[in-house]
């Protein structure tokens, strides 16, 4: 069995990169699988993480002065979603992720994340 990126992930990540937004994949998946997906997308990855590891990484990035958005869809993402400056739940995810997040992408499209950022910057 092999995990695959969402169909629009490459295009969504390219838009984020064009917006000068750094994307890092934080996952509990095994390193080999995560690296295969990340390499296909050209994104930095940190794998085999527990929920508290994801939360710690969010806080470390914030301590560097970065504004951190965390996108997630599972219960394992909830602590990091809560710690992030902006927590974004992907639609169809765990209820706890949806309840913890500041915003939700209802149809689970990665392309909706840069759209959401564009809208918020225009507000």
Description:
InterPro entries: HAD-like_sf, HAD_sf, P_typ_ATPase. It comes from Parastrongyloides trichosuri (Possum-specific nematode worm). Keywords: Translocase. GO terms for molecular function: ATP binding; ATP hydrolysis activity; copper ion binding; P-type divalent copper transporter activity. The N and C termini lie far apart (43 Å). Strand 3 (69-72), helix 4 (78-83) and strand 4 (86-90) form a beta-alpha-beta unit. The longest helix has 13 residues, at 51-63. This protein has one domain: Rossmann fold (3-Layer(aba) Sandwich). It has helices spanning 9-18, 31-41, 51-63, 78-83, 95-100, 112-122; strands at residues 24-26, 44-46, 69-72, 86-90, 103-105. Helix content is 46%, strand content 15%. A three-stranded parallel beta sheet has the order 3-4-5. With 123 residues, it is α/β, with parallel strands linked by helices.
CATH topology: Rossmann fold
Low-confidence runs of at least 5 consecutive residues: none
For the residues shown, what is the average pLDDT?
91
What CATH architecture do you see?
3-Layer(aba) Sandwich
Query: In CATH, what is the homologous superfamily?
Result: HAD superfamily/HAD-like
